[in-house]
Design goal:
The chain is globular. The longest helix has 30 residues. The strands form four sheets. Strands 5, 6, 13, 14, 15, 16, 17, 18 and 21 form a nine-stranded mixed β-sheet that branches. It is built from twelve helices and 21 strands. The chain has two domains: 308 residues, FAD/NAD(P)-binding domain; 86 residues, 2-Layer Sandwich (D-Amino Acid Oxidase, Chain A, domain 2), CATH 3.30.9.10. Strand 1, helix 1 and strand 2 form a beta-alpha-beta unit. Helix 1 runs parallel beside helix 4. It is 37% helix and 29% strand. The protein is an alpha+beta fold.
């Protein structure tokens, strides 16, 4: 039986691992016992292979990982900074219909880093293994959740019963916790898939993220440290399925056309995979003794690479709420406590979700190409607006700076 000041974290993805690490290394670590449950094994990072699944991590996410102690391992292993970003619809060169972001314009060394999923999880897992008050329970799924007045109890797939003062669900877009509790969500599938792969191009990527908005969906080339680029290409599900069945040569030909040859010819392509795109938002982020974070609470379009950053900020906020409650002698699992997290994060996440959803629909809407071209050009010449967008994407709010520094 777990003690009264115990926290169950469900989900061994990067957000769940970050929550456990923040709790286990924070100001009230000695007052907490953290148990992390994950039904699957955590993938091993292979230094000889670049994981297909990568994230564009913001400065705020970097600060969080530094606070945990995971960033040093990531930066020494393999990390790909991007210092510029080019967005365009018609012309790939900065000018009419394009937008150019440069980190130097806001006095920053970069606009973020491209980090592999497996490496991120391995770095977080290494930190967790050094924390005496964090217990990892891998290979355990959930069969049942029972919420009582003072605790929450879960029954695992092998019949084991665990209890805690609070359950934090970080178990992803198909959250088992959300399903078992019957929590209501709003959202819909886009009818699109994103193809991911890595390509070797004849032109250097110049530590620049390249993104073109096509009528079928956005196409992004993200710079990797080995000189290749990670491709995230959104399109209709039917088209994606067709492309995945094509030969490498046929796929490369279509990708070169879609990119407008921005990085020259493509010499090779790695394995390809795809994932379905949808938008989803949980109507309530919490209920008695239970709170949801990351993709378990919200799913956004990947066009700006903000999903993982949003999840990490959820992790930071819920840990901050828990520690503040403990400092005041309050019950961290009480609904009044958890609603502070909901108030602080729900509005921010919904704002980002709506902005990305609107942007995706705007660039796919037929008949207003000239308006889009003009809009990109205007923003590119409006320095205060452009600088504000860069700082927002990096997570450089005063609140974030004060919290991490």
């Amino acid at each position: 039986m777990i003690g009264r000041r115990s926290v169950l974290v469900v989900g061994g993805g990067s957000v769940g691992l970050a929550v456990a690490a923040l709790l286990g290394s924070g100001s009230y670590a000695e007052a907490l016992q953290v148990v992390l449950l994950e039904p699957r094994s955590i993938p091993k990072w292979d230094p000889k292979h670049v994981d297909l699944r990568v994230y564009a991590l913001s400065r705020a996410s970097q600060w969080m990982l530094q606070r945990i102690g995971a960033w040093r391992y990531i930066s020494e292993a393999r990390v790909s900074p991007y210092r510029r970003m080019r967005v365009w619809e018609s012309s790939p060169i900065s000018g009419l219909g394009s937008l150019d972001f440069d980190s130097a314009d806001i006095g920053e060394p970069d606009l973020g880093h491209i980090v592999e999923d497996a490496l991120l999880r391995e770095a977080l897992l290494r930190q967790l293994e050094t924390l005496p008050n964090v217990e990892l329970r891998l290979g355990l799924g959930l069969d049942k959740i029972e919420v009582g007045p003072r605790d929450v109890r879960v029954t695992t797939g092998n019949g084991e019963i665990l209890s805690g003062n609070l359950l934090i669900a970080a178990d992803g877009s198909d959250s088992r916790v959300r399903t078992l509790l019957g929590l209501s969500v709003s959202g819909a599938p886009y009818g699109q898939k994103a193809i991911v792969t890595h390509v070797d191009t004849r032109k250097e990527h110049m530590e620049t993220a390249w993104q073109r908005f096509l009528k079928t969906g956005p196409l992004a080339f993200l710079p990797l440290t080995d000189g290749r680029s990670s491709v995230v290409w959104s399109m209709s599900s039917q088209h994606a399925d067709s492309l995945l069945e094509q030969s490498s040569k046929e796929f490369i030909n279509q990708l070169e056309v879609a990119s407008g040859g921005i990085l020259g010819g493509i010499d090779s392509v790695s394995a390809r995979a795809s994932f379905k795109l949808r938008v989803m938002h949980l109507r309530q982020y919490c209920c008695p003794r239970v709170v949801l974070v990351g993709d378990a609470a919200h799913i956004v379009h990947p066009l700006a690479g903000q999903g993982m950053n949003m999840g990490f900020m959820d992790a930071v906020e819920i840990v901050n709420i828990i520690e503040n409650a403990l400092s005041r002698g309050e019950d961290p699992g009480d609904l009044r406590t958890l609603r502070r997290y909901e108030r602080n994060r729900k509005g921010e996440n919904l704002k980002m979700l709506l902005a990305l959803d609107g942007l995706n629909r705007f660039f796919r809407f037929p008949g207003i190409s000239l308006l889009r071209v003009a809009g990109l050009s205007v923003v590119d010449t409006a320095s205060p607006v452009k600088f504000a967008l860069m700082r927002e994407a990096l997570g450089l709010s005063k609140q974030a700076s004060d919290f991490f520094r």
